[in-house]
Design a protein that fits this description.
It is a single chain. The protein is α+β, with helices and mostly antiparallel strands and 423 residues long. Among the domains are: 124 residues, Butyryl-CoA Dehydrogenase, subunit A, domain 2 (Beta Barrel), CATH 2.40.110.10; 150 residues, Butyryl-CoA Dehydrogenase, subunit A, domain 3. The longest helix has 38 residues. The chain is globular, with a radius of gyration of 22 Å.
């Protein structure tokens, strides 16, 4: 088996295009967006949406190109998909530019990923096709509740079937919804988005009764009640959403409307994260790389250059720190590449997905903190972006499964334990 470390041509093309975007559209306004939380950079959103359509973005509204069409020639060798590999590279570069702005790049995000993973062909056609419409469109995942963060089995939001109208009636409260405002509130500049809400159709069944529902923007009974003021990723809106007897069409449930004695429905929804956690890891690595490169540049301007190749004992403390930071960033990136390669090749990657997320969350926090420490007062000053990247970094370790939860997933996968066996 041959292992190659060169990027495929589509990956290199995407990196070149998005590096230009990061340099010219993100970095110049990064500080302004950080200082004005919840301001919407419309020019960036419109440009990216136009560029994504020109690139042939997938129906899920992602940056990655659509899957290659199957050839009618049976003798033509089948080329493996590289969609997730392309996407990981794209997100790493955009996060190098500004991770908060990356999070408001038009597309379906976790909401569309849930439909892609657990929806029927008809549901995918209905909901995902809108991301190729005339206007930028957004979708979001609503999972977290005040008493149900990492423990999704504690979700209290209820979905009850009204048999007279054949509608689901959903009641509950969701918090920390990334992109909730742009996905649910109807903005004239954007297309009609949706949110995917996790709720129980049978609380007595535990996780077996958990399902997710697509709720379209503007649905009565649903309201964005709060926008969070955050430490980092400040340009990205994070919302609280209230559902008070919201009526949802029967066919908007993702998965079976009946409860079996298994956790199939829950596992189907959780499969979303096996695909997206390496992508979150990629965004963290983009932030870490930005901090590392900035420190090296600032030190070079002051005559401090790393002397590669010398024995470690002959290096200065700063040189050793920078070399260690480079090793950490590159090793974490290799874990991401393995996880997305497995996703592209339809291989089970629950272990690798969580491992890459854990590693990236650790590394981006360490690297950005060390960058601030090395530059001292300059690192702490808002004149430079180092302190911003330090603040942006921590979210990588929190959303889409905290570092602690992903460590549990890794342990369970390696030791062969179930969730009830190892908590």
């Amino acid at each position: 088996m041959t292992i190659e470390f060169e990027n495929p041509k589509p990956v290199e093309q995407a990196r070149f295009l998005l590096q230009t975007v990061a340099d010219n559209m993100m970095r110049p306004i990064s500080r302004e967006m950080d200082e004005n939380e919840h301001a919407i950079p419309y020019s960036y959103i419109e440009f990216m949406y136009t560029a994504m359509k020109a690139m042939g973005g997938g129906s899920a509204g992602s940056l990655a190109p659509s899957e290659e069409k199957k050839s009618d020639d049976p003798n033509k060798p089948k080329r493996p998909s590289i969609a997730y590999q392309v996407l990981a590279n794209q997100l790493e570069i955009l996060s190098w530019g500004d991770v908060g702005m990356y999070l408001i790049t038009p597309g379906g995000g976790l909401g569309a990923a849930a439909v892609q993973a657990a929806g029927s062909p008809a549901q995918r056609e209905k909901f995902l096709s809108r991301f190729n419409g005339e206007k930028p469109t957004f979708a979001a995942m609503c999972m977290t509740e005040s008493q149900a963060g990492s423990d999704t089995s504690a979700i209290r939001t209820r979905a009850v079937l009204d048999e007279k109208t054949n509608e689901w009636v959903i009641t509950g409260e969701k918090i920390f919804v990334t992109g909730g405002d742009k996905s649910f509130n109807e903005h004239p500049e954007f297309g009609k988005g949706f949110i995917v809400v996790w709720a129980s159709i049978d609380p007595s069944a535990g996780r077996s009764g958990m399902r997710s529902f697509v709720i379209e923007a503007g649905t009565p009974g649903v309201k964005v009640t709060k926008l969070e003021d955050k430490m980092g990723i400040r340009v990205s809106d994070t919302a609280s959403i209230s559902l008070d007897g919201a009526r949802v069409p029967f066919e908007n449930i993702l998965g079976s409307p009946t409860v079996e004695k298994t956790t199939t429905g829950f596992k189907g929804a959780m499969a979303t994260f096996d695909a997206t956690r390496p992508l979150v890891a990629a965004t963290g690595i983009g932030v870490a790389r930005a901090a590392l490169e900035e420190v090296k540049s600032m030190l070079a301007e002051r005559g401090v250059v790393i002397r590669y190749g010398l024995p470690r004992q002959k290096l200065t403390s700063i040189e050793r720190d920078l070399i260690d930071m480079e090793i950490q960033v590159k090793s974490a990136w290799l874990m991401v590449i393995k996880a997305v390669w497995m996703a592209d090749n339809k291989k089970s990657n629950a272990l690798e997905s969580s491992m890459s997320k854990v590693r990236s969350g650790d590394i981006v926090t360490r690297v950005t903190q060390k960058a601030v420490e090395i530059m001292g007062p300059l690192g702490y000053s808002r004149e430079y972006l180092l302190e911003k990247w330090f603040r942006d970094a921590k979210i990588t370790d929190i959303y889409e499964g905290t570092g602690q939860i992903n460590r549990l997933v890794v342990a369970r996968q390696i030791l062969g334990y179930s969730g009830s066996d190892l908590r």
